[in-house]
Write a structure and sequence with these properties.
heterodimer; A: mainly beta; 6-stranded mixed β-sheet; 5-stranded antiparallel β-sheet; 0% helix; B: mainly beta; 4-stranded antiparallel β-sheet; globular
Chain lengths: 111, 115
């Protein structure tokens, strides 16, 4: 059974703090690792799709790294803002059509 | 900006009834998916659909479930005889290519409550 784990489950930070979360996934049969941002009552929205070991991606204050050999990815948020409050989901893709999701990290940023 | 739309946003149904959840994927997308999240659990894959047929389905997607793309725009999920354990948020998603190098675009979900 393929398992994807995320930590921490939830995180409360002050505005301006930088933060990071971890996604662990199977290190074999890797095709892609997706990160999504999911705000309450909205659609999950893609942040990154990562495919290459050692890849780093950046979108504004958010960046992600990927290590496929050891099966982990980190998501970093620099200078958190209240609007960053959301659940951050990672999803692993192997050679099948489906995405296997982690439990998510729920981030709350307090002003 | 193009988006995936789902209707209804909420559906309450009695156990044993049939429900149809509707989705309009992004118009030039070729791959379509249904996922669900039972409260407190992970988002889980139900089915993928490509070239007018199911390309993959999970163990959850048994004979009670079916999908259809009846015209060029809609993508529906039917549950024939709902059970209490079918209560969940159901998400439709679409992509223009396979998910090995591109993201899935998700709808806002339909919250299904079976009573």
């Amino acid at each position: 059974i393929l398992n994807v784990e995320q930590s921490p489950q939830s995180l409360h930070v002050q505005e301006g703090d930088s933060t990071n979360f971890t996604c662990s996934f199977p290190s074999s049969n890797f095709y892609a690792l997706h990160w999504y941002r999911w705000e309450t009552a909205k659609s999950p929205e893609a942040l990154f799709v990562m495919t290459l070991n050692g890849d780093e991606k950046k979108k504004g204050r958010i960046s992600a790294t990927l290590n496929t050999k050891e099966g982990y990815s980190y998501l970093y948020i620099k200078g958190s803002q209240p609007e960053d409050s959301a659940t951050y989901l990672c999803a692993f893709k192997s050679d099948t059509d489906k995405l296997i999701f982690g439990t998510g990290t729920r981030l709350q940023v307090f002003p | 900006e193009p988006e995936v739309t789902q209707t209804p946003s909420h559906q309450v149904t009695q156990m044993g009834q049939e429900v149809i959840l509707r989705c309009v994927p992004i118009s030039n997308h070729l791959y379509f998916y249904w996922y669900r999240q039972i409260l407190g659990q992970k988002v889980e894959f139900l089915v993928s659909f490509y070239n007018n047929e199911i390309s993959e389905k999970s163990e959850i997607f048994d004979d009670q479930f079916s999908v259809e793309r009846p015209d060029g725009s809609n993508f529906t999920l039917k549950i024939r005889s709902t059970k209490l354990e079918d209560s969940a948020m159901y998400f439709c998603a679409s992509s223009d290519r396979g998910l090995w190098n591109t993201e899935a675009f998700f709808g806002q979900g339909t919250r299904l409550t079976v009573v």
